[in-house]
Amino acid sequence: MPDTRKIALFIALLSGFLTPFDLSAVNIALPSIGGEFAMDALEMGWVASAYLLASAVFLLPFGRIADIYGRKKIFTGGLFIFTLASVLMIFSTSSLMIILVRMLQGFGGAMIFGTAVAILTSVTPAHERGKALGIYTTAVYLGLSTGPFFGGILTEYLGWRSIFLVNIPIGVFAIAMILLFLKDEWADCRGEPFDIGGAIRYGLGLVCVMYGFSLLPGITGFVLLVAGSAILVWFVLQELRTDYPLLDMALFTANRVFAFSNLAALINYSATFAVTFFLSLYLQYVKDFTAQDAGMLLVVQPVVMALFSPAAGRLSDRVKPGKIASAGMALTALGLVLLVTVDASTPFSMFILILVILGAGLGLFSSPNTNAIMGSVDRKKYGVASGTLGTMRLVGQMFSMGIAMMILAIYIGDAQITESLYPAFIGSMRICFGIFAVLCIAGVFFSLVRHNVIPAPGNNSP
Question: Helix H segments across 70-125?
Answer without folding.
Answer: 71-90, 95-123
